[in-house]
């Protein structure tokens, strides 16, 4: 059942539109409002699939209704109803986010096609939102310890802003998850999330990887190539293990942060970029600065917000939740039944020294599920989880 709201101050037009839509499809549930103010109250209190809105109305005109709807419920398509003298305004409403406009008196075919297309688009938006939420679960942070709760609270506050974030912590603690959560809860969530592992790229290639290059810039540069900053335009770039970046590349990153511009290797042409930068490191950057290996000015540009991610040994209370999460994930991946871990097995896992952190725990859980009995016991942990 599709819910459609008609906002129109002329009763005759309302009745015509209602009659056309109701007779066209029995699954259309049509409601009416006689002015913009009443229409906005209904929009606030109901979940509509489509709004048909007149432009010139008392109390609150159609442009104001459109702008207010876009703010509180941007997923609802709004089709403007325009009189002959309102055509210029109707066209301008398209720039403000209106789905389309129809002229008075409404042409039957034009009206019905517009309504069908708008409802199809709403369904697509809803489905994309559902899929996005489903995909985002792969980056879910598991845990209820004080440290993890604090990180989640910081993310909720920081994500909607444009503040740069430096995530610190040893290998395997989940720094990448923090970065993904920041992106997915930000205003840039619909833009790209580009990851760069600075430690995995040779120092002589890091600048080309980040900023791109022009043909002939170096021996193997056979054609122009865009860099990661350009690829992340409108979204987020995550510079993982930034402490391993060369000083030359650091200087270019600093310029990109200061001026929102990059230049490809071998070119002096500036390219504007709109990118939010998140960075992570397993190193003590203040010590690196003292040793001349990291630029202090870049550090202060990146570390607007600092999020330290605790080691697993510092959040042992989360191990039961993590084991349950990984058990379900491994069973799903392998198409097998979920194995239960006995209380003593969990207790034994909590006593381990997890130098490899979450990543190591995940591997151990998979090993125990494959090699352990029908129920993973303390004896299984002693046999198969040893270092």
TrEMBL record:
GO molecular function, one term: ATP binding
Keyword Membrane applies: no
Main location: cytoplasm
GO (cellular component) term, any one: cytoplasm
Presence of keyword Glycosyltransferase: no
Residues with the 4-aspartylphosphate modification: 54
Keywords: Activator, ATP-binding, Cytoplasm, DNA-binding, Nucleotide-binding, Phosphoprotein, Transcription, Transcription regulation, Two-component regulatory system
Domain Sigma-54 factor interaction: from-to ranges: 141-370
InterPro entries cross-referenced by the UniProt entry: AAA+_ATPase, AAA_lid_NorR, CheY-like_superfamily, P-loop_NTPase, Sig_transdc_resp-reg_receiver, Sigma_54_int, Sigma_54_int_dom_ATP-bd_2
Localization per record: Cytoplasm
Domain Response regulatory, chain residue ranges per copy: 3-119
One example of a Gene Ontology biological process annotation: regulation of DNA-templated transcription
Protein name: Response regulator
Source organism: Leeuwenhoekiella nanhaiensis
């Amino acid at each position: 059942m599709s819910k459609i709201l008609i906002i129109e101050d002329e009763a005759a037009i309302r009745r015509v539109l209602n009659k056309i839509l109701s007779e066209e499809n029995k699954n259309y549930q049509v409601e009416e409002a006689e002015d913009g103010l009443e229409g906005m109250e209904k929009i606030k209190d109901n979940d509509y699939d489509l709004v048909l809105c007149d432009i010139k109305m008392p109390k609150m005109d159609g442009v104001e209704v459109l702008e207010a709807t876009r703010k509180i419920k941007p997923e609802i398509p709004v089709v403007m109803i325009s009189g002959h003298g309102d055509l210029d305004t109707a066209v301008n409403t398209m720039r403000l986010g209106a789905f389309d406009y129809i002229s008075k008196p409404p042409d039957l075919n034009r009206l019905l096609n517009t309504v069908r297309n708008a409802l199809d688009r709403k369904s697509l938006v809803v489905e994309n939102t559902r899929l996005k939420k489903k995909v985002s679960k792969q980056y879910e942070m598991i845990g209820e310890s004080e440290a993890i709760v604090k990180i989640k609270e910081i993310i909720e506050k920081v994500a909607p802003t444009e503040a740069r974030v430096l995530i610190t912590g040893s290998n395997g603690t989940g720094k990448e998850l923090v970065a993904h959560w920041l992106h997915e809860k930000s205003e840039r969530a619909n833009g790209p999330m580009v990851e760069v592992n600075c430690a995995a790229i040779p120092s002589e290639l890091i600048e080309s990887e980040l900023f791109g290059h022009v043909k002939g810039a170096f021996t193997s540069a056979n054609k122009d190539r865009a860099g990661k900053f350009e690829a992340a335009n409108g979204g987020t770039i995550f510079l993982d293990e930034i402490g391993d970046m060369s000083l030359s590349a650091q200087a270019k990153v600093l310029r990109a942060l200061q001026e929102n511009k990059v230049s490809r290797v071998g070119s002096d042409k500036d390219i504007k970029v709109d990118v939010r930068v998140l960075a992570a490191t397993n190193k003590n950057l203040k010590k690196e600065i003292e040793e001349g290996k990291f630029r202090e000015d870049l550090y202060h540009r990146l570390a607007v917000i600092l999020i330290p991610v605790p080691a697993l040994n510092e959040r042992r209370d989360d191990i039961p939740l993590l084991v349950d999460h990984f058990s379900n994930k491994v069973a799903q991946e392998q198409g097998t039944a979920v194995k239960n871990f006995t209380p003593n097995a969990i207790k034994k896992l909590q006593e381990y020294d997890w130098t490899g952190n979450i990543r190591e725990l995940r591997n151990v859980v998979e090993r125990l599920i494959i090699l352990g009995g029908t129920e993973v016991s303390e004896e299984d942990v002693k046999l198969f989880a040893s270092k």
